[in-house]
Predict the 3D structure of the following.
Amino acid sequence: MKRRSFVKSSLLTSALGGLAPLHSWAKGTDAEAKKSRQEFYELRVYTLKTAIQQQLVQDYYEQAAIPALNRLGNKNIGVFTEMTPTGITKIYVLIPYKSITDFSATEEKISKDAVYTSAAAAYLFAPATAPAYDRIESSLFRAFTHMPAIEVPEKKARIFELRRYESSGEGAGKKKIEMFNSAGEIDIFRKVGLTPVFFGEALVGPLRPNLTYMLTYDDMAERSKNWKAFGSDPEWKKISSMPEYLDAKIVSHITATFLVPAAFSQI
């Protein structure tokens, strides 16, 4: 009887022992799958001086750039203006790429698209006396592993918030990214109703090191309600009080810009 119990116990232990590596393997493959799906994002910010420039840039994206990028397989391109501009608005353009190779190849591919070059002529060849814009500021981001691709919200009237977190050094910046990815900050966002569109680590661009992300709301009242819920969430309080995640150590400056999508924006 004792021998039979011992054999059963041994078999059960062996079976359970085999599950642990299987579970670890599943977690590992899930992480690798997310990494393989990581998108790259180009964020262009156009500085404009006149309403004519604003119209020219918007026409360029609606009639030339977005259709051409879509033909290449680049989807979910966002075009936004500031919700409360001071003077002539800036235009923000978010372009996702499937990989860094996709990003590097797109300019050459699009330049060979005859339909694009014809539709884009007024923008591409605007005279020096009447340029299409003042300047373009571009940044390149790599998606976070915990949110490897853009999530396009339901198409309806809404506002967007673009948030940039600058850090005092690369190590601090990586720690803040870890806080979103591994410590669960993105999951808490979702739980309290904060709806993310993308999260990205800046690889190239101004004000590095920084991470930038976008949230969307029905209106400012919903924003206030959901951020209040986030601030009082027990899980958030626990994470944000950990010594390695204190804001004073890992975030040096936060910038928030409120945006509205153009009528033709795909986000």
